[in-house]
Amino acid sequence: MRAFPCTVLVLLAVVAGATAEELGERHRWCWAFEEADGLEVREAAGRTVPGLILNDGRGVTRAAGRSGRALAFSGGDRATRGGAACVQLNGLQDVDWSEGLTVETWVFFTELDRSATYELVSNTEGDRGPGWRLMLGWQSLWLRTGEGGTGKTWGASSKPSVTPVTTSQWYHLAGTYDGSVFRVYVDGVLVGQSAEGLTLPAGRSTIDVGAYRGGYAYGLNGLVDDVRLYDYARSPAEIIATAKLGSE
After folding, report:
1. Which member of 20, 95, 134, 229 lies 3.0 to 4.6 Å from 45 by CB, making a disulfide possible if both were Cys?
2. Distance between CA atoms of residues 4 and 154, nearest Å
């Protein structure tokens, strides 16, 4: 199976009558990780949304991905805080995710511990929010937020007994929030949905990929190929189209 890279999807949007930066009043961003070397990661449409491999590149290498290149992450020693590999995406401080959010990525896990948490993409202030976390915890895919501190958390999650996530294969993992309901998807299939009427409190201005808060904890071991963000909730049909686009 092979998916169109971010740049091709942007071109498809342009052909359809939307610019690379806007789809009406809606916006999207995509990082394809196609750079051959260096610490910088660039947004595919060429906008000023700088991304950087943190800590002088510790634990991150360039590797062959599902389509083109990917980033390979090392989670580091889980007993030592601050040792996980992480990419940080900046320049999105003015986006109001409380109005809507879609976060999508392709992930290939090389190691999974059943009881561990693996941060995929997030802007959370802490374990319990505020902000959002797309993560794998106890082998469940979560899009989660919360009050912060020791407060309540809420969101959507999958059931590992129904939708197991394992090593050594690519997964398209996605989460959406439409201003009321959280949803999570695995390979285009809706696998978890929250109740209605939930909020999404604002989190940090930066987005972390591959670990929690700049590499402090919850590092993943595996490859990440493409990260896509939208300031609206994509429909189930749009999610499955991306997950299956270009499959053969």
Report:
1. 20
2. 33
